[in-house]
Amino acid sequence: MSASGPSRRFARFPVARAVAWRMIHNFLTNPAFLIPSLIFPLFFFTAFAGGLSTISKVPDFGFPTGYTAFQFVFVLLQSAAFGGVFTGFSVAMDFESGFARRLLLAAPRRGGIVVGYALAALTRALLTWILLTVVALLAGMRIDGSGVDLFGLFGLALIVNVAATLWATGVAMRIRSIQGGPLMQIPVFLILFLAPVYVPLKLLTGWIHAVASINPATALLEAGRGFISGSPTVVALAFAVALGLVFLFALWARGGLRRAEASP
Amino acid sequence: MRRTPLFTQVGHLARRSVLRTLRQPAQIVPALIFPLFLLAVNTGGLQKATRIPGFPTHSYLTFALAIPFIQGALFSVMNSGTDLARDIESGFLNRLALTPLRGPALLAGLLAGAIVLALIQAVTYLLVGLAAGADLAAGFPGVLVIVALSVLITLGFGGIGLFAALRTGSGEAVQGLFPLFFVSLFLSSMALPRNLIHTTWFRDVATYNPVSYLIEAIRSLLITGWDAKALALGFGIAAAIAVLAMVAASHALRTRLVRT
Fold first, then answer.
1. A232 SS3 class
2. What is the pTM for the complete model shown?
C-alpha cells in the first residue's frame, strides 16, 4: 500500500533513514569496507606529505603553511570524492544482489533511496576526515586559517562528497552491476590528478599546466589551500563549481533512478 | 603410457596463457595506459623538483621513466593470479590434475602470458618515454638490460600472484593484493632520490623497501649509464623475489592438488 497526501510527501525521510542506517551499519561492521576507506587516504597523505616534502624547497613554491598542510587539502578532497565513488560501488552491489529491486518495490518515495545513500556516504566521509585530521595534526601539520576558514574547507569537502555520490549513484543505477566500477572511478581519478596535486598551479609545466588551468578541481584545491593557510582565494568560484556539480549530478542521479525503475 | 615431455607440456599451457592474455583487452589496456598516464602527470607536476640541489638529472621524465616498468609488473600479479584463480573457480585446475601434467610445467606455462605482456609493456614504455624526450645514458645495450630486468621483475611479481591464487583459490583475494603492492611502490624512492627525501622515517622505509632498488637499477641505466652496484642490487633482488615466489607457488600447488 502506498502513502498518500502529506504522509506521502514525508515518506522520503523514513526511506532515506532506513537506507542510510543499513549502509552505515554494513560499513562499520564489515572490515572489508571499513579498513580500505580509512587506510587509503592515510596512505596517500603519508606518501605525498612524507615522501615529497622536499618539493616545498623549490624556488617560488610559496606556501608558508607547509607541505603537510598543502597535501592535507588534496587528500581531504580526494577522500571526499572517493567516498562518494565507493558508495556507488555499494549501490551497484545492491542491484547485483537483488536487494535494490526489493527496495524499489518497497519504498513509497524512491528519491529517498538516493538521499539515504548520500547520507551514508557523508557519514563515511566524516569518519575518514576525523581520522585524517588527527593523524595530520600528530604529524605536525600547521593550520594558519581561522575557525571560519576551516568551516569553509570542510564545507567544500562535504559538497564534493555529495557531488561524487550523486555521480557514482547515477552510474550505478544505469549499469546496475559492479562492472560499472571503472566508469564511476576513472573520471574522478582523472579530474583529481589533472589538477595541481604536488605543486601550486604556477609551478606546473607544459600540457598539464594548460589542462589544470581549466580543470574545475583546480579551483577546489586552490580554495581549500587558501582556507588552511588563512588566505582565502577563489572561494566564490570554488563553491560555485562544487554546487554546480551537485546540481548537475542530482539530475544525473535522478535520471539513473528513473532508468532503474523502468528496467525490466 | 608414454609421458609427454616437459617442454611440450609447458608449450601447450604457455600458448593458452598467451592467447588468453592477448584476447583480454581489459588486461592489456590498463597495464599500458595507467602507468603512462601517471608518468605524464608526475612529469608535468614534478618537473620543478629537478631544481632541488643534488637532483641527478635535469629531466624529471628521465627520472620517472623507471616507474612504469614496476607498475606494469604489478599488473602481472593481478593478471596471472586472477587467471589462475579463475581456473580454480571454474574447475579447470581439477581437470588438469587428472592429467600427467607436472607442477613446474603448469607454473611456467601460466606465467607465459604475463611475460609476453611484460615485453609489450617494456617496449611501449621505452618508445613513449624516448619519443617524449627522455635520456638513455646506457644506449642501445641498456635497452636490452632494461627489458631483461623488466621481464625478471614480472616473473617474480607474477609468481606472487600465482602463489596467492593457489593459496586462496579466489580472484577477489588476488585483487586484494594490488593495494598492498601499490603501497610498496609509493613508499619507495619512486618520486625522489633517497638522499633527497628529508622525512627521516620515510627515507628509512624507502631504504628497506626492495622496490626502491628495482626502480634505481632501471633508473641508473637511464641517467648514469652503467652502474654495477645499482644493477647488481636490482637483478639480485628481482631474482630473489622470483625464486622465492616460484618456490612458494610450487609448494602451494602441491598442497592444492593434494586437496583436489
1. coil
2. 0.81
